Amino acid sequence: MKKFRFHLLLTALIALLSACGSDSDSPDKILPLPVPASLVSEGDEASLTFTWEAVPDAKCYAYRFNEGDEVYTNETSVRFDGLTPSTQYSFKVKAVSGDLGRWSDSDWASATATTGEQPVPPFVITLGEVTFYSAEVTVTPADPSMTYFCNILPRTEFDAFPSEEKLIEAQIAQIAQTAETNGMNFGEFCQAMGLLISGTQTFVTAEELAGDTEYVEYVFGLDYSGNATTGLVSTTFRTAKEPTVKPSTMTFTLEVTDLTDVSARLKVTPSTDDEDYFCFFVLRENLDVMGEDAVIAACIDDLNEHISSSDYATVVAEQCHRGAYTLSYAEFEPNTEYVGFAFGVGQHGLRAAATTRLFTTEPFMMKDQEGGEDPIRIEVVEWGIEHAQIKFIPTAEATPYRCELTKLSDFAGLSDEEILARDMEKLWNDYADYYSMMLLYESFTMTRYMPLDPDTDYIVYAYGLSDAEFKATSKLCKKVLRTPAADASASGALRSRLLGR
Fold first, then answer.
1. Which residues share a beta bridge with 405?
2. For 301-318, what is the mean pLDDT?
3. In sequence order, what DSSP letters do the residues of 141-176 get, joined into one string?
């Protein structure tokens, strides 16, 4: 799928290109006159009229009808009467030079026409999906070998031209002027910028159309010498209305559960299952200082930053939720107050916007630093395909320690003791005497940067390992986690702002 922009507005962009010089043709060289352009026919059951555009510096025109004798005329059209109904006839015309010292006759322009048959248009324009900011257009030329130019203009600008011929002239003049500014001839510039196309092509406009606005897509044949070879064909369409976010009546029931010193769960139950919402935690102190509107603004700004390099639907599907959802997080500070929150999200143009006020939980206090039954606590900070963070909290008896995350299938059917033994064997084979450099001595949050496989079981494990001798100092501590089909996560920058880090 190709993209194109408004070609009439190219000057400012193209002026940034490095000028490319080219040797001009010798003024003494005799050049052929341009081929008569826009050769078309019309008629009825017994007559045909062929018309073409005037060629500068032509003395007259020579034509041959149905391979007959060469005939000369000073006009730019010729009519033939008394023809046989439903019969195909051929016609060709060329420009005749009046100064053979400067110009030679042009090449022939050819056409065929059938009496009583409607003429075949040089192009067929087919519209595909039209949104509030873009349109898909397919152009099919009658002659696949011809080169052509296509563009799009607001209907008001298109109608400002007195005729289609004047629009073609203005477009060609614009390209020629910009080519000259950049030190190129017409053909060089068109080739450098890819302005001329051949064959059937499908285009999608750049994201710069206005919503609820009428536009005209137009196309005409154009060669690399700057000559129009067909008349203009156009189609009109209107973009959809730009989406505007509407306030929602959605409400939320929020509950904080499973509190420890570093982890908690936020259970979110919206009043409707068909609207998007965003949820997370915020340090109570930050909420008091920022205020609810600023918390919403921080989250919306983060969503829109992602949307700027992707699109609304993709980002909202990854970062927001619909229906009941339980958010788990495990990187809080002990003995600290936090608040859980949620608010609705909708589309406003190409961006995201809030659809509800901020709904919050009562402030909750994280517990004091605590231990656990295992010598190494494993807390899931985030778990997703693109976002996986696991926190390891060792006790003194399991320090230093080693930790790892891998597919459960790597240890299929093995006991905890066998998993520990196999991991130590691999560690020794891969790192030998400097394995101790990989050991950890404090709490550590592992971040997985490579995407995980969806719908797959993984095992995250850790065990104490001596740095004095190659010997395990604790049992294997582990969790088995399955990746979801879709991913969702608040970004690191947003977490830092809300949670005060």
1. 460
2. 90
3. ESSTT-EEEEEEEEHHHHHTSSSHHHHHHHHHHHHH
What is the domain class of 376-501 according to CATH?
mainly beta
What span, in angstroms and rounded, lies between the C-alpha atoms of 161 and 418?
A: 81
What number does CATH give the domain 2-20+121-238?
2.60.40.10
Cα separation, 462 vs 255, whole angstroms: 31
Q: How many Å apart are CA 248 and CA 322, to the nearest integer?
A: 14
Q: Cα separation of 452 and 390, whole Å? A: 14
**Three-class SS state of 464:** strand
Homologous superfamily in CATH for domain 245-370: Immunoglobulins (2.60.40.10)
pLDDT at 207: 59
Rounded to whole angstroms, the Cα distance separating 356 from 353 reads 9
User: What is the crossing angle of helices 186-193 and 164-181, to 10°?
Assistant: 90
Q: Confirm if 462 and 406 have CB atoms less than 8 A apart.
A: no
DSSP H or E stretch at residue 347: strand 337-348
Q: What kind and span of H or E run contains 53?
A: none
Residues of the chain with CATH 2.60.40.10: 2-20+121-238, 33-114, 245-370, 376-501
Residue 259 has a CB neighbour count (10 Å cut-off) of: 15
- Order the strands of the 401-407 sheet from edge to edge: 401-407, 457-464, 477-482
* pLDDT class of 488 with cuts at 50, 70, 90: low
pLDDT of residue 14: 34
* Residue found under tokens 């078309």: 40
492's CB contacts (< 8 A; 6+ apart) are: none
**AA letter at 1:** M
* Mean pLDDT, the chain, integer: 87
User: How do residues 58-109 score in pLDDT, each as one tens digit?
Assistant: 999 999 999 999 999 999 999 999 999 889 999 999 999 988 888 999 999 9
- Residue 206: the pLDDT is 65
For the segment 392-440, what is each residue's pLDDT rounded down to a tens digit?
Answer: 989 988 999 999 999 999 999 999 999 999 999 999 888 887 888 889 9
Closest CA relative to residue 315, chosen from 495, 498, 489 = 489
The answer to pTM > 0.85 is no
Q: Provide the CATH number for the domain formed by 33-114 in this structure.
A: 2.60.40.10
State the residue for tokens 């939720």: 321
What is the chain's percent helix, strand, coil content, to nearest 5?
A: 20, 35, 40
Range ranked top by mean pLDDT from 112-116, 370-374, 458-462: 458-462
